[in-house]
Amino acid sequence: MDAAHAGLGATMEASLKCYRCGHKNQDQAFCGSCGWPLALNEYLSKSVKEQIGLAVRDRDVLETESSIRVFERAWGWVKIVMGISAALLAILGGGVVWKVSDWRSSVDSAKQAVTDTSNAARKQIEEVSSRSAEDITKTASNANQAIQDASTNAERQSNELKKAASQTKREMLQERLSLRNDVETSRSQLQAADKLEPEMTAMSHQLAQATSEIQAQQKVISSSEDFVKSVFSSHTVDFFWVGQGPDKRYAVLPPPAGGKQTAVFLLLRSTPIPETLQLQFHIFTQPQNSYFRVAHNLVIFFWADPPDNLKQQQLSVAYFPDSGDKELIQSLEMHDGRVFADGEPLPKFNQPDPDFKGSKWIHLEAPAK
Question: For 262, phi and psi rounded to 5 degrees?
Answer without folding.
Answer: -100, 130
